[in-house]
């Protein structure tokens, strides 16, 4: 029994150089897209962490300013690249007002003043400045003198 040699089928041949190059280009584009998405994800996670830290610092300053309500603005460096500013202003009061509009306690009663408290936390992130702002209203109770 003799065997005949059959020519290889056209479908059984390997890939051409052009097909291999196109496949490599497509794989390169896909990898670049995946790496870019991963890099943006890392940057977004870092920015979210900074916003969370700024919000925590703003809440702390808001709580601290409630203990010592001093009318006007105060500011300072909070460390870690954060800068804070607190503004306290009177909105309304139950007492008599002096010429500057501030409540003056009577000799026999408490004066309750409603104050607006605003806290800003600023920081730099790359070339951009970022800010978190919290607003609240607090009561200031003045005892008779």
Compute the CA-based radius of gyration.
34 Å
Number of helices: 1
Distance between the termini: 126 Å
What would the average pLDDT be, to the nearest integer? 83
What does the model show?
It is a single chain. Strand 1 (72-79) and strand 2 form a beta hairpin. The protein has 145 residues and is of the alpha+beta class. It has one domain. It is rod-shaped, with a radius of gyration of 34 Å. 35% of the residues lie in helices and 37% in strands. It contains 1 helix and 6 strands; from the N terminus they run H-E-E-E-E-E-E.
Any chance you could write out the topology, listing elements then pairs?
Elements: H1 17-67, E1 72-79, E2 82-93, E3 96-97, E4 103-104, E5 111-125, E6 128-142
Antiparallel strand pairs: 1-2, 2-5, 3-4, 5-6
Offer a concise description of the structure.
With 145 residues, this protein is an alpha+beta fold. It has one helix at 17-67; strands at residues 72-79, 82-93, 96-97, 103-104, 111-125, 128-142. Strands 1-2-5-6 form a 4-stranded antiparallel sheet. It has a two-stranded antiparallel sheet with strand order 3-4.
Which descriptors apply to this entry?
145 residues, 1 helix, rod-shaped
